[in-house]
Amino acid sequence: MIVLWRATDEPRRAGFAVSRQVRGAVQRNRARRRLREAYRAMREAAPTHTALVIIGRPAALRRPFAALAGELHDALTTIPGPRA
């Protein structure tokens, strides 16, 4: 996955996209739902004033959910800024 971020004055927000490398709309939607759920579980790791875009890759469907959430947590903790 790729996590893009930008500091903002507004509260934390996130957008989700899945690459067309994931074939089929059903599979892309499933990957997007898994990423959204992983973000819900790990959102406190992100700084409070950031705008995030999380881009899913084909591995988002194959990896176990715990591993996916762990990768997202690691990515969010590397973003500088205050956390709530």
Number of helices: 3
The gross shape turns out to be globular
CATH architecture: 2-Layer Sandwich
Secondary structure category: alpha+beta
CA gyration radius, whole angstroms: 13 Å
Low-confidence stretches: none
Distance between the termini: 24 Å
Instruction: State the total count of DSSP E strands.
Output: 3
Largest sheet: 3 strands, mixed
Which percent bin holds the helix content?
40-55%
**What would you call the quaternary organization?**
single chain
What key phrases describe this protein's structure?
42% helix, 23% strand, Ribosomal Protein S5, domain 2, 3 helices, 84 residues
Kindly describe this structure.
With 84 residues, the chain is α+β, with helices and mostly antiparallel strands. The chain has one domain: Ribosomal Protein S5, domain 2. 42% of the residues lie in helices and 23% in strands. It has 3 helices and 3 strands. The protein has helices spanning 25-42, 59-62, 65-77; strands spanning 2-7, 13-18, 50-56. A 3-stranded mixed beta sheet has the order 1-3-2, covered by helices on one side. Strand 2 (13-18), helix 1 and strand 3 form a beta-alpha-beta unit. Helix 1 (25-42) packs across helix 3. The longest helix has 18 residues, at 25-42. The model has no long low-confidence stretch (mean pLDDT 95).
Q: What's the gist of this structure?
A:
The protein has 3 helices and 3 strands. With 84 residues, the protein is an alpha+beta fold. The longest helix has 18 residues, at 25-42.
